[in-house]
């Protein structure tokens, strides 16, 4: 095996430094780590001397001093409630730099900056869809953004060079560019991020008064649904407060679904009650099937199930042969029982190659279901 | 693959056979696989000849014939809505056997059997807290119950020998015994299993009308909170219908929390609104902190995440190299974002080999998270 880096490490960096990062928490320090790994000069600042020193110690960049040259790009990675302040200050302090931010809400800071009359020519808002339950530079990682969507909110006034600079940073960090308006972004994250956060937190909150006995029966379902309830309440108060309208609308609709479900279950004799319950559960199946990278129920791919001996070599051989056959695997899931002699590889492929894949695999001696 | 029993096979089995399993789906076939691994004779029956033949093919037992001797214990693993029927029939057909069931609701079938005047001396209800999103013998595994709580509902009339027999099966399958009344059980699973299921399903249902753009921003939080929304609606209609009262009460309370949260967010100027939001989010932190064993989705294995180029050859290479390194992969999941060049292989291994696996993989040039 060669020592060359696997993945995207080999391509030349797009970003030209120096890059200045304001806010050295999880996101800021991860940006720094990722860019430094690509050989880009990164300077850091943070209101907390301890935080910035910690991030520098982890290799996320060096603490910026007055002697440093002006940055080509400034990345604001502060908490949401001070993001507009930090962006305004960066635009004023570094008039030649392009300024972006990675705040998880995009409309509120933009409206605030506009209200203040700040010249936003050099500002391009962005939001990498990456995070962890715990924040801080201590949790930072260079690959935090790899393969994650990175939303860029441009408008007609955004200069092409400014856009290119911000996109370059996102691409250098491994992100997948997605262009949206601030309104589209905020509604979208309201649905896929903020609503699940509130739902998970309130579900977990129901466990506070539970008996030890009940908690003792917890399984994987409860663990998964409540995992993000461990997130920082203060950060989430800021995010939810900055995205109030879409989140309230979503919570109202979700609450109405909960009430409708409870009513149908309460009085199963009423006309259509069973049907309403079944419809909502089936809608859940369809909804989860729409999530990309979600196993099992994707409508875009056909799943082929191949029987394999329950040994690691067998699966490697199967995948190698799929490669030889030129069959592109879109997803894979392994099922095996330690008590059974056989396992199953569930391989998702494009519908148009499914039939040929099965024929070719069977010809090579594989058993399919 | 050696024929020697794995896992807890070294201890002598407590269960004396033959054991008869009624219902050869996920739970029934897993019971069969696990008991057979301990050398216990298992017979199977199912309304569907295809299902029972499939379970027998997997090694979960042999199809019961009229020539078979009477079983010492009968395990009913049918869908909930026919569990009471199956228990009654088993008690009548095998008067010398102890009968248990693994139905996920315990009060409703007991009340139904009592209403019918069935002699329940030889019946001990039980419920192993184990399952998977997808059912069927094809998903069965011998270790499904290992380290999972197994609730036993005895009452004063339960003979000691009957209790010992049922507990023996649970222990032989690796379960952790927990004694509860049917009422305690149903309230507990309402909270830790049924409420999360409805919440997850209704959250996922909100994704049905979402734009592609919004869905494209989905991350790990949404995936985790909606994972169990992929569960079988028909099975869940039966479970929820059989545990109506506790679930409706929990849904009402949860719905009230959602409404209170939405109201506080809607009108942040009202007195105490911010405090109410903070309190609910903080309660979520405390609630999730109460869940035992909250690390990763499986307690038995450690998950290693390896970055791979999004091409079939890369994954095959990774698995081949794992085989060369002598690292046994217990489970594998592939995650990749559409449009990204990079995917993630999540590989479950035994905790004791995880560190070596990471070191060896990194040495060979792989990037791990």
Descriptive account of the structure:
The structure is a homodimer of 369-residue chains. Chain A has 13 helices and 12 strands. In chain A, α4 (107-115) links the parallel β5 (98-101) and β6. Helix content of chain A is 45%, strand content 15%. Chain A has 3 domains: 19-180, 3-Layer(aba) Sandwich (Rossmann fold); 187-289, 6-phosphogluconate dehydrogenase C-terminal fold (Orthogonal Bundle), CATH 1.10.3660; 302-368, Alpha-Beta Plaits. Chain A starts with 18 loop residues before the first strand and ends with a strand. Chain A has 369 residues and is an alpha/beta fold. In chain A, α3 (83-93) crosses α4 (107-115), α6 (182-205) packs across α10 and α10 (244-266) crosses α11. Chains A and B meet through α6, α7, α8, α9 and α10 of A and α1, α6, α7, α8 and α9 of B.
Write the CATH architecture name of the largest domain in chain A: 3-Layer(aba) Sandwich
Assembly category: homodimer
Largest sheet of chain A: 8 strands, mixed
Gyration radius of chain A (Cα, Å) is 25 Å
Protein name (chains A, B): Prephenate dehydrogenase
Pathway (chains A, B): Amino-acid biosynthesis; L-tyrosine biosynthesis; (4-hydroxyphenyl)pyruvate from prephenate (NAD(+) route): step 1/1
Domain Prephenate/arogenate dehydrogenase (chains A, B): 17-299
Family (chains A, B): Belongs to the prephenate/arogenate dehydrogenase family.
